[in-house]
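Full entry
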Amino acid sequence: MPRKLFPLPRFAAALLLPGLLLASPAAVAQTTPAPMGLNPYTGPRFSGGPDSLQAVLRRAVGSAGSALTGQLFVRLELNKNGQPARCYVLTPPDRAGAALARSKEAKAVIQQLPSQLCTWQPGTSSINSQSDASIILPLYFGPPPAPTPLAYSDENPAFVSIVAKKNSPPLNVVNLIQRQFRYPAEDLRNRVQGTAYGYYEVSETGAVENRRIISGLSPTVDAELLHALNTLPDALTPPRQQGRPVRVAYVVPINLRIQ
């Protein structure tokens, strides 16, 4: 039976890994979602690069001690000069993550994080903008995953160009997910609104891995977003940092609003 179509919601753009999010990457880098086709990363850059950012985050989390385990994602807001303004945690979709976010040790790490991240270089897309920027970063309590993805890289992965109509531009990752996502009927009736965050990593070979929901709205919205993430093909070329293939994390936010 064909999937029933509903009006598509508006999509919010993430910075990212990415994440490394994270590429709204590394730590998770932002993650501005990787566009279809080779394209440079245009989000904010940490002084010293994504490897240095990864090391600073590890030291920051280390102050919480070894008793805590798990992973949280935080949004770091930057002012127009690239200075960290504030940091807050994305609501985890599971009980273990929620308990970690409520712990006093994790709260202390998040509160102190802006002062440890110094000034960022503004993204090329916001050089002429007076608005603030933000980036989503992952915090690993306990042993980090191996390999640990970067929050961003110089070059985003290149995907197959998908053209909906003749002479129309290729779709980027956000467009592709938007076309696959359908607002669940139950959530429309219940007027469920807000932002859900999907996560995926692109490996050194271009494989799209570890797709999951890192902050959700409802079981049905989360399942639909995960379905959309699972339609992403592997990349033709991997992310690259200083010319070498690297693993990068990306965060894709979907903003649901009933008009």
Q: What stands out?
A: Residues 51 and 213 are 25 Å apart (CA to CA). The longest strand covers residues 70-78. Residues 19-256 form one domain. Residues 1-37 have pLDDT under 50 and may be disordered.
